Amino acid sequence: MHNMSRVAIALSTSLMIAGCAKSEQAAKDSAAAAAAAAAPAPAPAPPPAPSLAPSELAGKWNMVSVPESGKDTTPTKFVLTATADTTGWVVVFPSGVKVPQHVTFSGDSVIEKSGVFPSQRRKGVKVTTDVVLRLQNGKLVGMTTAHYAKSGPDSVLRLRTEGTKAP
């Protein structure tokens, strides 16, 4: 009978250890599942920026460029004539100066580069411009960087540029 008690105790102990091991594994599995459920799902990738096409901008735009800083914040006004493709874009200033634009599109932006022309802000100085514009709420908005043909700290001017389509 003594041997039978030992076998019964040994069997009970084995079952108890096995039962505890299963409970511990189940607890670990439950904890892992809870952690996975509580972890936020990764954010979806943002949609690609909408592409802007030349045909969306075709027509005449009444534009204004204002320096971002400095003492002279008077606006420079001009008319941008845009075509349904990237050729034939031109800027016309009130003085009559016409400046052809080299135009490219990238995503939601139109990028314009001018050749050398007489500055409308600085008399007797030649300038080139780099412009990046986006269509926002029916307006063209962006930045112009003017590069003046002179050396010194004021050879570059940044301007905020905005325009509305002419009726």
Keywords:
9 strands, Lipocalin, 167 residues, 2 helices, alpha+beta, 25% helix
Instruction: Give the topology string: H per helix, E per strand.
Output: HHEEEEEEEEE
The count of DSSP E runs of length 2 or more, i.e. the number of strands, is: 9
**CATH structural fold name of the largest domain:** Lipocalin
Shape: elongated
Over the alpha carbons, how many angstroms does the gyration radius reach?
35 Å
CATH class division of the largest domain: Mainly Beta
Strand content: 35-45%
Written account of the structure:
With 167 residues, the protein is an alpha+beta fold. It folds into two domains: 1-44; 54-165, Lipocalin, CATH 2.40.128. It has two helices and nine strands, in the order ααβββββββββ. An eight-stranded antiparallel beta barrel has the order 1-2-3-4-5-7-8-9. Mean pLDDT is 84; it is low at 13-21.
